[in-house]
């Protein structure tokens, strides 16, 4: 029986040749290919600026860090950061590493994104930032979120690492907040091996991320800029001039070169994922005992979530065992209710949130992969396997 994998390579001959060309050039550290990819990426998604880094996690770190170093700081330690209860670990870590206090908000059981009623209740005067997460390809309702923010001094960030290619109101997800982040990890919509991108329309935030990405130095800045005056003694004095407590989050030149080729393929990848999703909805949308994700805007369908409802009366382990026997790979829905992970004791947070919907995902949910090729025949096999496992 064939295996239904969680993820697979999106590369072709062009990507392999691009990598070889970089190796042959002898210039393997961040350089012109990365800059070209950043320009193409920003144009593709309708942003003014893009900063490539070595992972989507690093893209999140850059986004959070930059907000602390604007001339009028947008964030300060001690503020509250509002986050959804279901996401990946590195949505949360940079926020607490910079001294923010997490307020976990429950998810909508159908969309798997923010429960908008719970979000409204969470927006107290101490909130400095909302880090919205577009889960498994599905956009948040950004019209509603922006209406909730109104004229309050709350910065909106977007973790779009699972949702490259999604849109809401004909606008690309990742471009609704002050900064949006993307991942180009192997299992995501397009792959540069490891990689991430942060986009923004704000020139100061862009320059801050350029500096923070590479040690906090000035070498990668253009002149003039919003951060610092140029040393009038000459270029030599800018080579190792440090102005911010930065990191080394630089991508490889090879990743930029591969990204240029992958971006050309991305429209086809997304179109096929959506075609697969249409068939998934047909097969599973009316299957009693399971709940699938409700699309908001136009999802890019990272994967297919399934939540076993109480009427199923079948333990999740039985369904997962049936899928494993059928050579179908499964995973939890991201990290489930992240508040239930032991690491929470190391993260400053508001205690005892009410998260019943996230708990349900944690205890009764799982997801299977979507792909850039036609998996519709395999989805029919999945429907039979799951249907038999739950007695439908």
Explained architecture:
- The chain folds into 2 domains: 13-261, Aspartate Aminotransferase, domain 2 (3-Layer(aba) Sandwich); 266-389, Aspartate Aminotransferase, domain 1.
- It has helices at 13-25, 32-45, 56-66, 89-97, 116-122, 142-149, 203-213, 253-284, 316-325, 356-364, 376-389; strands at residues 49-53, 80-84, 101-105, 127-133, 155-159, 167-168, 171-172, 179-183, 196-200, 290-292, 303-308, 365-369.
- It is built from 11 helices and 12 strands.
- 35% of the residues lie in helices and 14% in strands.
- The mean pLDDT is 97.
- The strands form 3 sheets. It has a 7-stranded mixed β-sheet, with helices on both faces. It has a 3-stranded antiparallel β-sheet with strand order 10-11-12. Strands 6-7 form a two-stranded antiparallel ribbon.
Concise account of the structure shown:
The protein has 392 residues and is an alpha/beta fold. Helix content is 35%, strand content 14%.
* Sheet with the most strands: spatial strand order: 1-9-8-5-4-2-3
> In the CATH classification, which architecture of the largest domain applies?
3-Layer(aba) Sandwich
Largest sheet report: 7 strands, mixed
Q: CATH homologous superfamily of the largest domain - what is it? A: Type I PLP-dependent aspartate aminotransferase-like (Major domain)
* N-to-C CA distance: 22 Å
Number of strands: 12
Describe the global form. Answer: globular
Poorly predicted runs: none
CATH topology of the largest domain: Aspartate Aminotransferase, domain 2
* Average pLDDT level: 97
Beta-strand residue fraction: 5-15%
CATH class assignment of the largest domain: Alpha Beta
The topology string of helices and strands comes to HHEHEHEHEHEEEEEHHEEHHEH
Q: Please work out how many helical segments DSSP would assign.
A: 11
In which range does the helix fraction lie? Answer: 25-40%
Rg of Cα set: 22 Å
Helix-strand makeup class: alpha/beta
Count of spatially separate domains: 2
């Amino acid at each position: 029986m064939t295996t239904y994998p969680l993820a697979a390579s999106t590369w072709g001959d062009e990507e392999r040749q691009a990598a070889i060309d970089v190796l042959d050039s002898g210039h393997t550290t961040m350089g012109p290919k990365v800059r070209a990819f950043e320009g193409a990426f920003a144009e593709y998604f309708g942003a003014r600026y893009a900063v490539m880094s070595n992972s989507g996690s690093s893209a999140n770190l850059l986004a959070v860090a930059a907000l602390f170093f604007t001339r009028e700081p947008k964030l300060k330690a001690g503020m509250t950061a509002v986050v959804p209860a279901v996401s990946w670990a590195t949505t949360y870590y940079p926020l607490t590493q910079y001294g923010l206090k997490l307020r976990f908000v429950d998810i909508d059981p159908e969309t798997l994104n923010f429960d908008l009623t719970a979000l409204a209740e969470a927006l107290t005067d101490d909130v400095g930032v909302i880090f919205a997460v577009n889960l498994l390809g599905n956009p948040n309702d950004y019209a509603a979120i922006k209406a909730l923010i109104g004229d309050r001094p709350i910065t909106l960030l977007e973790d779009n690492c699972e949702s490259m290619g999604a849109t809401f109101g004909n606008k690309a997800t990742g471009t609704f907040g002050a900064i949006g982040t993307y991942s180009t990890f192997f299992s995501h919509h397009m792959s540069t091996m490891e990689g991430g991108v942060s986009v923004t329309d704000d020139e100061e935030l862009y320059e801050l991320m350029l500096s923070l990405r590479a040690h906090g130095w000035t070498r990668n800045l253009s002149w003039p800029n919003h951060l610092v005056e140029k040393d009038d003694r000459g270029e030599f004095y800018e080579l190792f001039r440090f102005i911010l407590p930065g990191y080394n989050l630089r991508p490889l030149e090879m990743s930029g070169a591969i990204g240029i080729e992958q971006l050309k393929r991305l429209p086809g990848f997304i179109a096929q994922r959506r075609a697969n999703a249409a068939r998934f909805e047909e097969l599973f949308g009316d299957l009693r005992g399971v709940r699938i994700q409700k699309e908001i805007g136009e999802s890019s369908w990272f994967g297919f979530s399934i939540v076993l409802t109480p009427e199923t009366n079948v333990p999740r382990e039985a369904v997962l065992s049936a899928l494993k026997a059928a050579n179908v790979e499964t995973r939890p829905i991201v990290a489930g209710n992240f508040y239930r992970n032991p690491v929470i004791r190391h993260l400053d947070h508001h205690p005892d949130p009410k998260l019943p919907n996230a708990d349900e995902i944690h205890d009764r949910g799982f997801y299977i992969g979507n792909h850039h090729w036609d998996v519709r025949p395999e989805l029919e096999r999945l429907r039979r396997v799951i249907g038999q496992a739950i007695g439908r």
